[in-house]
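Checklist before submission:
- one chain only
- standard amino acids only
- sequence pasted in full

Submission:
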Amino acid sequence: QVQLVESGGGLVQAGGSLRLSCAASGRTFSTYATAWFRQAPGKEREFVAAISWSIGWTDYADSARGRFTIARDNAKATVYLQMNNLKPDDTAVYYCAGGREYRASRLQNDYDDWGQGTQVTVSS
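Returned file contents:
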């Protein structure tokens, strides 16, 4: 079992930046992928970004591409989400998810490990 713990959320003004971190502990895997999802009140959880830890392949939702950057530090077993030019629509609980996958998948069902979430609030 892999435990994922998110941190770095908070309250920022529109146009500001935040860097989310997701620290993994427990068993490590040679093939692993980590993704960020978010869920706003009254909406379904949606894909934000994903990365393959072994190769570094990435994928982004259209809403995130160009503003957000996902990266990993394999030695620290940590994945980051750098969020720039934040908008009020980015307000949500952000979840880190992981799974034994080669691909940087957009699909929630591909991920078995989930963090507790961290709140991101962007004010106008």
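Reviewer check: The mean pLDDT is 94.
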